[in-house]
Amino acid sequence: MAILEAKHISKKFERTQVLKDISFSLEKGQVLSIIGSSGSGKTTLLRCLNFLERPDGGVILVNGETLFNSDDPETTKESEIRRKRLHFGLVFQSFNLFPQYTALQNVMLAKELLAKEQPDYKARKKEIHDEIEAEAKKLLDQMGLSDRMSNYPHQLSGGQCQRVAIARALALKPDILCFDEPTSALDPELTGEVLKVIKGLADQETTMIIVTHEMAFARDVSSQVIFMDDGRILEQGTPQEVFERPKEERTKQFLSRYTNG
Amino acid sequence: MEFTEQFPIVFQALNVGFLQTLKLFFVTLLGAIPLGLVISFGSMSRFKPLSYLMKIIVWIIRGTPLMIQLLIIYFMPGLMGHNIWGGGESGRFLAASVAFIFNYSCYFSEIYRGGIQGVPKGQEEAGLVLGMTRSQIFFKVTLLQMIKRIVPPMSNEIITLVKDTSLARIISLQEIIWAGQSFLKGNQGIAGVIWPLFFTAVYYLIFNGILTVLLGQLEKKLEYFR
After folding, report:
1. pLDDT tier at A132 (50, 70, 90 boundaries)?
2. ipTM for the predicted complex
3. Domain B3-224: CATH superfamily, name plus number
4. pLDDT on residue A260
5. CA A161 to chain centre
6. What are the residue boundaries of the structural domains of chain B, listed by start?
7. How many angstroms separate the CA of residue A172 from the nearest CA in chain B?
8. What is the 3-class SS of A188-225, one letter each residue?
9. Nearest CB to A90: which of B129, B136, B224?
10. Structural domains in chain A, sorted by start
11. DSSP 8-state secondary structure symbol assigned to residue A74
12. Mutate which of B119, B121, B130, B221 to test chain A, going by most A C-beta atoms within 10 A?
């Protein structure tokens, strides 16, 4: 069974139809890359999956559970959405780390707030805190940041910030980790370290959806690629199919800009 | 009377007046800091009638002199047959406090609004994606960033407030200007001297000096993040 199924997602901003009948599914442990030019709706699609935008129409299922169905008001309630968000993690283009917290605190904050809702929190406070801290340290270590844990975001490079942001998203153990152009705000020299970390996650079979302009990377890391254009999925398939044998003229045109440039 | 004889008498009277000045200052801060937050949330509300109402109130309060507001708030109820403030100094203090709290909360609300809207939207979104509730996001993420942003403009307003308390003289609140002026008209055998009134400036200056240092320290404390 697919870990994620999105069916007929549509979204309109004012008069522009940003997403038009988007359907796709993703298997556990797979990596899906979404490519396409700016304004094609890639970011909006990710934001819909994370409930930062509410789709006008469509159904989102995770592990067979209906998280969102535009026809069922029960599933679109604000109070319900908070829990459902936890199925997804999102790494932003601009990191969005919390500036007043250290790298370690950034990774721990949300987990600690969630832990407070556990019935046994009061009794096991110290123990829970230590567990969360140990896990956060492990994650930062995995991101190659063991010597940067007590630094504040403004003391870190863009690449380091983005790796903290990845650790922060992983701390909540989402079923599906989403990346919204994770390297677009970085100096070219720093993109490598972030891509390496994402590749590492792919090797550990982390289920991921990556919106990216790094074509070589998408080709290397993905099990599935979607090419979006004007709010539609124009083409989807394996990296070989999409990159080497694109069927649509528009896809060829888009890809040629990367290979020739 | 010699100056050396006048001085202790004047000093004593000015101290008493300044105590009233300080009282009005702190009561205004205590009231206007939270009320300003309520007004700023109101003016940012998605419920349009509320946000328009708040914006109209802010427009009126910021658009008219505080001195006139003091006069209206102090005298209007009596003129309409409801003496709600009661007589004497305590009545004047109550009326002055209400006028100052209203006036300053409107200015504070605009500073807060700038501070809240100045925090990047991505901060809230990051919190949401991490499963935080809106109130957790406000208290754990946005608030401190907002405080950092508003400390410099708030410092400005707070220093202005110290001097604005002198406007309460218009309803004869016995603050330091009133005390200084009393030696012009005649008080404890001293009359027709203006230096006590001039001397009040020293009180404001020293107190604002202390505040400037304290607020500067707070600003510095928040420099650990950007």
Report:
1. very high
2. 0.93
3. MetI-like (1.10.3720.10)
4. 62
5. 16
6. 3-224
7. 8
8. HHHHHHHHHHHHHHHHCCCCEEEECCCHHHHHHHCCEE
9. B129
10. 4-98+175-260 (3.40.50.300)
11. G
12. B130
